[in-house]
Amino acid sequence: xxxxxxxxxxxxxxxxxxxxxxxxxxxxxxxxxxxxxxxxxxxxxxxxxxxxxxxxxxxxxxxxxxxxxxxxxxxxxxxxxxxxxxxxxxxxxxxxxxxxxxxxxxxxxxxxxxxxxxxxxxxxxxxxxxxxxxxxxxxxxxxxxxxxxxxxxxxxxxxxxxxxxxxxxxxxxxxxxxxxxxxxxxxxxxxxxxxxxxxxxxxxxxxxxxxxxxxxxxxxxxxxxxxxxxxxxxxxxxxxxxxxxxxxxxxxxxxxxxxxxxxxxxxxxxxxxxxxxxxxxxxxxxxxxxxxxxxxxxxxxxxxxxxxxxxxxxxxxxxxxxxxxxxxxxxxxxxxxxxxxxxxxxxxxxxxxxxxxxxxxxxxxxxxxxxxxxxxxxxxxxxxxxxxxxxxxxxxxxxxxxxxxxxxxxxxxxxxxxxxxxxxxx
Amino acid sequence: xxxxxxxxxxxxxxxxxxxxxxxxxxxxxxxxxxxxxxxxxxxxxxxxxxxxxxxxxxxxxxxxxxxxxxxxxxxxxxxxxxxxxxxxxxxxxxxxxxxxxxxxxxxxxxxxxxxxxxxxxxxxxxxxxxxxxxxxxxxxxxxxxxxxxxxxxxxxxxxxxxxxxxxxxxxxxxxxxxxxxxxxxxxxxxxxxxxxxxxxxxxxxxxxxxxxxxxxxxxxxxxxxxxxxxxxxxxxxxxxxxxxxx
Lengths: 426, 246
Hints:
The structure holds two protein chains of two kinds.
Chain A: H1 3-16, H2 18-55, E1 60-64, H3 93-100, E2 105-111, E3 119-124, E4 127-133, E5 151-154, E6 163-167, H4 168-173, H5 181-184, E7 188-194, E8 200-211, E9 217-220, H6 222-233, H7 238-242, E10 246-251, H8 254-266, E11 270-272, H9 275-317, H10 319-327, H11 332-375, H12 389-415, H13 419-424
Parallel strand pairs in A: 4-9, 6-8
Antiparallel strand pairs in A: 1-10, 1-11, 2-10, 3-4, 3-7, 5-8, 6-9, 7-8
Helix pairs in contact in A: 1-11, 2-9, 2-11, 2-12, 9-11, 9-12, 11-12
Chain B: E1 8-21, E2 24-37, E3 41-46, H1 52-59, E4 67-72, E5 75-76, H2 82-91, E6 93-96, H3 108-118, H4 123-136, H5 152-164, E7 170-174, H6 182-199, E8 202-207, H7 210-213, E9 218-223, E10 226-232, E11 243-245
Parallel strand pairs in B: 3-8, 3-9, 6-7, 7-8
Antiparallel strand pairs in B: 1-2, 1-4, 2-11, 4-5, 9-10
């Protein structure tokens, strides 16, 4: 008996008691529906968590030299202490160039930090204001509590040396009113470094833009920062001897950032990443999902009992037929296969119905949640229920497996029937 | 493989089948020895409980003998493995039952196709052979009818067509006319004999009806599990046999 004939016979037998087969598959449908909804919700929530983490900068990795943040001196030009730790691995421009080629890396931005003791003054016309350098986000996730600034004038993408971005607070401190802020864009200002012994060095920079930040900070390019630092430490080869203070790497996504973190660590640098938080959040979601799926599995257990009962009834009703088939030369395997395929199809039918119902419910819930979020004016976007092809496939296989498992014992019983006894069955 | 005359298709030697019932041993068949020649029609007659059906079931490998052996075309069934017994039923034997035993959800043609499905015959050949057989039993116009849409005689003719599907050497009929009226009984019996003659098939038929048995070449009378006597009703070569009651 060919497999095709067994399948066709199983389908025909399933169609004999349509209502009974359908009712038996309903149990599987409920179980699969619950599991699909729960897993698709978990999948959606995980994606949402990852997106949220990405939005707060967890797709960023901050790299510092292996021995951590340590500046080669705090004394300034007066007490020039340029002897930094000699044993630390420095981050060179070659490293930066190499990292740019790694897959999953979007951008590598080296950072030069000025020592905290540096006094900076911003001069424009006759106005002077003490400011500090606004460095890129130095800790992953800092964006979580730092609002992204908006450009009030010009643009905030600092690329060229010789340019500067002022915060709104710094610009206002120079005596400008709100309406005059855009007038500052394109003009030259001077950034003056002052030591404790009143030695000064001015850097003339062109205002590229004004950000919406209220603090009195300025943003300058890495090259300008380096020039200032070189003056401060009186060392023109600072980059060669000390390297970059840190590097901010933008990755394609959070999961890629996690992979790259271990790769960077292997490169001998210290990596600051909040991947552990992503992992923790995902682990919590997975744990909750497993618990809920186990609860939903109770429905599948009940469903499998239903299928087993259906198959036992089918074997009982068809005992004589099984006897006839055996008398005509059907083997035990032929009989068993036909019944296993039949019970597998009952499970599969439930699986298909459950998947479709779960998918539709997911769509409706996505729509409902979206409406609710709009109604509450909450800025949360994205879908919460995600039925992936993988989930659909696994759900189908699982449903068929439930059916096959439930039908195994009745099919074994049928296969072991004595043909003579079966033929006498009324 | 034991020696067996080329013309002999069934050779039973000291064939016994005992059952355990209520602590007692019931001798359904007790040391039966007989032979059936190829192409003949042998009737097994006797009262109820004489062992006719038991003997038929042993020949059809639906049951195993307690003692003795039965050789079909020289092959021992007592020593046969389960797979050999299945192959014997599939390829060498065609069963006709008193209560037809057709599968109710299948049409007449599909019922005839079942034995061929078990021997992996292709769908197209199966269909063609089923229609050919239904034509031979004069039921080609009823090919798509389900058993509940057919009369008793028609159902039995479908069952005959099914039994012939794999061109068996041996047809085993257990009271095939038992559920039919006398007119239909005659028609079915004539059809069976016609098919036997055309296809050179050997038939072992169980009946308690002397009129049915009268059509046979050889009649084996059974009584209490033993052969009472063997009657040869034909002068034909095929019907010559020997009986030995032990």
